[in-house]
Specification:
The structure holds 2 protein chains of 2 kinds.
Chain A lengths: L3 H4 L9 E10 L2 E11 L4 E5 L6 H9 L6 E5 L7 E4 L10 H11 L4 H14 L15 H15 L3 E5 L7 H16 L3 E5 L3 H7 L2 E6 L2 E7 H6 L4 H7 L6
Parallel strand pairs in A: 3-7, 3-8, 5-6, 6-7
Antiparallel strand pairs in A: 1-2, 1-4, 8-9
Helix pairs in contact in A: 3-4, 3-5, 4-5, 5-6
Chain B lengths: L1 H24 L3 H34 L5 H11 L4 H12 L14 H37 L4 H11 L1 H17 L2 H7 L9 H11 L2 H33 L1
Helix pairs in contact in B: 1-10, 2-5, 2-6, 2-7, 3-5, 4-5, 4-8, 5-6, 5-7, 5-8, 7-10, 9-10
Classes of the chains: A alpha/beta, B mainly alpha.
């Protein structure tokens, strides 16, 4: 398999994210209260918490899809190149290959190089045989890998993943997790939400734990899983869901 | 007496049908001229209406500008605009004393095209708005994640809604080719200059020249059937291929 990291070099210093007293309200309801955190280094951060804790919301704010109601979100080292993979991949109504060449096109890649790069990415994610298939008739796992291939071509310094394996079978989950490790090895900062403890243990370098829209804990993965500080996190790690 | 009268008229109609079919099969020059002009006028009108209406519909779908509601209601209402009223409006604009009288377009094919654009544009813009708005709901986060502005998202949305939009444009063509009021008023039904299928049918029927009227009717009906068949096939293919 060719080494794509040569093609799309990532040289910038690790992108840091600083959130200061970030809150988000929707129709008078506070969905996220006063979250302050910084992300730095090159690790993999898992945002965890029960349903409705504000995990996806926090990530959308970080990615800039939503604006906070109060507080500030800054990238002190400058806005990094970012990509996001959603729980249900949004693929364009075109072939798998055309989905990728589209991404290259809007990122200003010269036409002559698009096809080769897209084919390389398809190959890397085991989709080469499906290049001509319409993207939306692929299986769930294939669609998610295509979404990852698309993110790969953006060459992100930060990759956000919102429950990327929530609807997948074990083999597809493995493929997605391997892909995440590939991104990580290429130097991409990973920020991912999950409510799957096993997956989090496999992937996380650090954990951000949210509960009812509040940041409850932000610690190294070993610490979080072996000796969580707060009662909520203890219950969550033990598998007793906190609501 | 009355029985023989019915038989006579039935016989008359029967021979009219034969003559009509002969006119169609022999490609009678008068008939061909009329059909050609009809197609030229309606296709030009639909092309112009699509070039204006598709981006207009997409823009209405994407931007929440003040007055948007009024425009949408107006477009929806204009979908039912009676052709004679549209014809009258264009007639007043283009008549000698009208604001565009200088152009000398009244009673020319150009005037007929303009009148049909007025009829077709609301259909295309209003239906395109609905389709694009639905698609935008689905694509919005992904396209924003790619860093695309709304303006740059329009071509993507129009392309990805293409199968639905083809049906929309065909619906517009159906309206244009079937209407008689507008082209009659602004075209004047001048033989060899502005006579199209619908105006010719109206005239020939009133003159009692049933064969030509019927022949034109057959061509018009086949055309409409052909369009609907095409719309059906395109829709089915899209559903099967693109999921």
């Amino acid at each position: 398999m060719s080494d794509m990291s040569m093609a799309i070099g990532i040289e910038a210093p690790p992108a840091g994210l600083a959130m200061e007293s970030v809150s988000f309200d929707h129709r008078g309801q506070a969905l996220l209260h006063d979250v302050t955190l910084t992300l730095s280094g090159a690790g993999k951060t898992l945002i965890m918490g029960p349903n409705g804790a504000g995990k996806s919301l926090l990530m959308r704010l970080a990615h800039g899809l939503l604006q906070p109601s109060r507080g500030q979100i800054r990238w002190p080292n400058g806005q990094p190149r970012q990509a996001m993979v959603f729980q249900r991949p949004v693929l364009l109504r075109r072939s798998a290959l055309a989905n990728l060449t589209y991404t290259l096109k809007i990122n200003g890649e010269p036409r002559a190089k698009r096809r080769a790069k897209a084919m390389e990415a398809l190959q890397r994610f085991g989709l080469a045989a499906l290049a001509k298939r319409p993207a939306r008739v692929l299986s769930g796992g294939e669609q998610q890998r295509l979404a990852l291939a698309r993110a790969w071509l953006i060459g992100p310094e930060v990759l956000f993943l919102d429950e990327p394996t929530a609807a997948l079978d074990p083999a597809a989950i493995k493929a997605v997790e391997d892909a995440i490790e590939d991104f990580h090895r290429r130097g991409t900062r990973i920020v991912m939400t999950s409510h799957d403890l096993h997956q989090a243990r496999r992937l996380a370098d650090e954990v951000i734990f949210l509960c009812s829209g509040r940041l409850v804990e932000h610690s190294k993965a070993e610490t979080f899983f072996s000796a969580p500080c707060t009662a909520e996190a203890q219950a969550f790690v033990k598998g007793e869901l906190v609501w | 007496m009355s029985t023989s009268g019915i038989t006579d008229s039935a016989l008359h109609n029967d021979s009219a049908l034969h003559t009509a079919l002969a006119l169609v099969i022999d490609m009678d020059p008068a008939l061909v001229d009329i059909v050609t002009l009809s197609l030229r006028v309606s296709l030009s009108a639909v092309l112009a209406a699509a070039l204006i209406g598709l981006p207009l519909g997409a823009a209405l779908a994407l931007w929440r500008l003040p007055g948007r509601g009024v425009v949408i209601v107006a477009l929806n209402a204009l979908m039912g605009l009676p052709p004679v009223v549209a014809g009258l409006g264009v007639y007043l604009l283009l008549s000698r004393a009208g604001p565009l009288g200088e152009l000398g377009l009244l009673f020319t094919p150009s005037a007929m095209i303009i009148a049909q654009v007025v009829l077709v544009l609301p259909i295309i813009a209003a239906l395109a708005r609905q389709l694009v708005e639905e698609l935008w709901g689905e694509y919005r986060e992904q396209l924003s994640s790619f860093g695309l502005s709304r303006a740059r998202a329009i071509p993507t949305l129009l392309w990805d809604a293409r199968f639905g939009l083809i049906t929309v444009v065909l619906a517009g063509f159906g309206r244009a080719s079937a209407e008689v009021g507008a082209v009659l008023i602004v075209g004047g039904n001048i033989d060899g200059v502005t006579r199209v299928m619908t105006t010719a049918i109206a005239l020939e029927t009133s003159k009692g020249n049933l064969p030509l009227a019927l022949g034109l009717g057959i061509v018009l009906l086949s055309l409409v059937a052909l369009i609907n068949g095409a719309a059906y096939i395109i829709g089915e293919t899209a559903r099967r291929r693109l999921g």
